[in-house]
Amino acid sequence: MSPTFAAHDETSLPLSLLDADSLSEWLESQPARVQAWVKTSGFLAGFGTSLVLPSDSGDAAGALVGLGTKAARLRTRFALASARAALPARTFHLITDLDSDALNAELLGWLLAGYQFDRYKASARELAQLICPDSTDAFRLEAIAAGETLTRDLINTPASDMGPPDLENAARALAITHGARIAVTEGDDLLKQNFPMIHAVGRAASRAPRLIDMRWGETGPKLTLVGKGVCFDTGGLNLKPGASMGLMKKDMGGAAAVLGLASMIMALGMSVQLRVLIPAVENSVSADAFRPGDILNSRKGLTVEINNTDAEGRLVLADALALADEENPDAIISMATLTGAARVAVGPDLAPYYAQSDRSARALESAAATVQDPVWRMPFWDPYEAMIEPGIADLDNAPKGGFAGSITAALFLRRFVTETPNYLHFDMYGWQPSAAPARPQGGVGQATRALLAALPDLLKS
User: Fold this and answer.
1) Which residue range or ranges hold the Cytosol aminopeptidase domain (predicted)?
2) Has 240 been annotated as catalytic?
3) Catalytic-role residue among 172, 240, 362, 377
């Protein structure tokens, strides 16, 4: 269930959000017993610290949460979220002088800190609740939290329950909720409809590959989201070692992210003509698996030499991107857990991205800073184009040498988007390796909140 704010409650307790400077000012307005309690407790408004204030009867009368220093806030996001688990399971109303952007970020963090993945194990954890301030758009924040919850749930679900048919069912459920239209091309029909690389990657699995195509909205600019839906990646015949296979349920993180973003867009009723394309496959091993050395045809007409079957994500995305490009929408955005090279370069927190348009990049980075959803621009570096040209075919899916792996993957994808100048590609991680404020260990959305905030500028003609 998606986290929500509490309903208005006359018995709610005050929760004051303070930094070191505002703490001193707040203390001066308090009675001597409160000042003594705060000082004796050693509360200094450090980042994410909390203190419950007692009433005369010994019950909770309110609480304080620390914002910490400016330097601390540069290193860690979501102070209010980090304190939520330590607060008593009561309903609070917020007292703060934060500006609207900072307040929205803290309130969203509070909601996201309420996320619990309880499909397989019921959680008995009861958390503090918060009434959203009247000055804030609670509906928007809850819609964003719902989209992020969807993304996290899809990634966290193991492949036994999140194969291509299950990913299709999740998309269908979302379509029903928001009145979207959906069509699915499955199995050998992929060959008949000219999606040969999606078919080649997924044909070895017991659950048939498919292309999910969802549309919503009749007016506004055209936006197409393409998400990598590799529901499990063994590496194919270039089989991954066991240690590298452990997190491969998250290899559909790009699909989860675009569905989460689509959920936000539709719930908020944005004026866009939205299309979501998800090639959903498993990269498995069987007698029918595609092989190193094979040359595949693509929807675009380009041939691809397979030098590593573990570089399969770019293959399924390529056919979907070619389809997206045929409509020449105002923007195409692809999201994928595509390369380990991206993680080596920027770590798990940042979402590296590639943008054809400098204007779109500026809009995205401004929005990302505002909503505390960090991204980092990477280059479409043209001199590396030769690295993805093997000679025997038009393209190489896994250039030798190991250099610039994320860039060469992005350049590969760009070859399939030739009619749409406004193309952005995200090489995301989709996983929180250790718990952080508002982000428990496990699946996580990246760049979706930044994209949502940036869309009005991204889609300007």
Assistant:
1) 308-315
2) yes
3) 240
